[in-house]
Amino acid sequence: MKSSARVVVVGGGVVGASVLYHLTKAGWNDVLLIERGELTCGSTWHAAGGMHTLNGDPNVARLQQYTINLYRELERISGQSCGLHMPGGIMLAGTRERFDWLKMAKARGRYLGMELELISADEAAKVFPIIDKKYFVGALLDPIEGHVDPYGVTHAYAKAAQIAGGEVVRHTRVVDLKPRADGSWDVITEAGNVHAEHVVNAAGLWAREVGRMVGLELPVLAMQHQYLITEDLPALKGQKELLTSIDFEGEIYTRQERGGVLLGTYERAGVPWSSVETPWDFTQSLLPEDLERIAPSLEVGFRHFPTLADVGIRKVVNGPFTFAPDGNPLVGPIRGLKNFWVACGVMAGFSQGGGVGLTLSQWMVEGDPGADVWAMDVARYGDWATLAYTNAKVRENYSRRFRIRFPNEELPAARPLRTTPVYEQLQAAHAVFGDYCGLEHPLWFAPSAEEAHEEITFHRSNAHPHVATECRAVHEGVGLLEISNYGKFEVTGPGTEEWLSRVMANRVPQVGRVALTPMLNERGKLIGDFTMCRLGEQRVFLICTWAAESYYRRWFERHPPPGGVTVRPCAMEYVGLSVAGPHSRTLLQGLTRTDLASAAFPFLSFRRMDIGMVPALVGRISFTGELGYEIWVTSEYQRALYDLLSSAGRAQGLKLFGGRALNAMRIEKSFGTWAREYRPIYGPHEAGLGRFVDFGKSEFIGRAAALEEKESGGALRLMTFSVDAAEADAAGDEPIWHEGRVVGWVTSGAYGHRVQRSLALGYIPVALAAATDGFEIELIGERRAAKRESAPPLDPAGSRMRA
Ligand SMILES: Cc1cc2nc3c(=O)[nH]c(=O)nc-3n(C[C@H](O)[C@H](O)[C@H](O)COP(=O)(O)OP(=O)(O)OC[C@H]3O[C@@H](n4cnc5c(N)ncnc54)[C@H](O)[C@@H]3O)c2cc1C
Question: Is 411:398 a contact under the CB 8 Å cutoff?
Answer without folding.
Answer: no
